[in-house]
């Protein structure tokens, strides 16, 4: 009789714990993926660089990128190339909105990160940690590799 009671209690706990574990796992899934982060190798004596990457929003809410920073730069800005009056222009964005399910590709001629005040020119094979700060999310650190592009 005692074994039956223990078995029943065990089964009851299993039915309570399984849904809790599943919901905890679902809540901890990252709402975004930042991938393919590369930085163009910098020319000697320069303190400005450019980075490219992809940001994919896996959540059901719009994500707002407010800041990007690195210990080796003074400032990092999100920029976008635009054609205005037949002229290609580069404009900084205060915030980048990434819609649910959207993938924003940072590439030459489009969105990119401008790195200002880099402490030393970045050479091929080096890496640089970039910290992305989205509204209502914990900061996300991504390691970018320096390449000749």
Descriptive overview:
This protein is α+β, with helices and mostly antiparallel strands. It has two domains: 1-29; 32-147, Immunoglobulin-like (Sandwich). 17% of the residues lie in helices and 48% in strands. A hairpin with a 7-residue loop joins β1 and β2 (48-57). It is globular, with a radius of gyration of 22 Å. The mean pLDDT is 88.
Features:
149 residues; Immunoglobulin-like; 10-stranded mixed beta sheet
Which helices and strands occur, and which strands form pairs?
Elements: H1 2-27, E1 32-40, E2 48-57, E3 63-69, E4 75-84, E5 87-93, E6 96-98, E7 103-105, E8 111-116, E9 127-134, E10 140-147
Parallel strand pairs: 1-10
Antiparallel strand pairs: 1-2, 2-7, 2-8, 3-6, 3-9, 4-5, 4-8, 9-10
Can you identify the CATH superfamily of the largest domain? PCu(A)C copper chaperone
CATH class of the largest domain: Mainly Beta
Describe the biggest sheet? 10 strands, mixed
The 3D shape can be described as: globular
Instruction: Please give the CATH architecture of the largest domain.
Output: Sandwich
Task: Write a brief structural summary.
The chain is an alpha+beta fold and 149 residues long. It has one helix at 2-27; strands at 32-40, 48-57, 63-69, 75-84, 87-93, 96-98, 103-105, 111-116, 127-134, 140-147. Strands 1, 2, 3, 4, 5, 6, 7, 8, 9 and 10 form a 10-stranded mixed beta sheet that branches.
